[in-house]
Design a protein that fits this description.
Length: about 160
């Protein structure tokens, strides 16, 4: 284990570790795409999840900016995990549909997506996500907004 990995693990286990955070983090660790893209879980509250996606050659389009597919995936995951915070243990959510508006294109820095539950029901959950770009100086700029519908399903693992 590298020193950076050990430090990141220590931060997870101290400052942010709650049963709800751990539930979301364990699910995120099972997602191959999010692991490949080095997505990080920043915050978990009932009805709200924040994720970060660092800029790398894994997330670019042909002009060198963040690819819309990576932005959409990050927004989808943030909204989906926000929904997961309000459904019972033993259940998961799957995306039924989402609509995204791309507001600006960015290079460098990282993207942060904050997913929030708008309405939670027995059969569907509606959530949204705001994606912002954070540059090297910490300045944030709007990147995308997304709204989605999710369906609770039994956890199968």
């Amino acid at each position: 284990m590298s020193a950076a990995t050990h430090t990141a693990d220590a931060m997870h286990s101290t400052a942010t570790s709650t049963p709800l955070f751990d539930r979301i983090d364990q699910s995120l660790q099972r997602q191959g795409l999010m692991q490949h893209l080095q997505t990080r879980l920043l915050r978990v509250e009932p009805g709200c999840v924040e994720l970060a996606l660092p800029f790398s050659d894994k997330v670019t389009q042909q002009q060198g900016g963040f690819h819309g597919g990576a932005i959409g995936a990050l927004a989808d995951i943030a909204g989906g995990y926000a929904a997961l915070t309000v459904i019972p243990e033993g259940m998961e959510v799957v995306t039924v549909e989402y609509k995204i508006n791309f507001l600006s294109s960015f290079q460098g820095g990282e993207l942060r997506a904050t997913g929030k539950v708008l309405k939670s029901g027995k059969r569907i959950v509606v959530s949204s996500a705001e994606v912002v770009h954070v540059d090297a100086q910490g300045k944030t700029s709007p990147c995308a907004v997304m709204q989605q519908t999710l369906a609770p399903v039994p956890q199968t693992y």
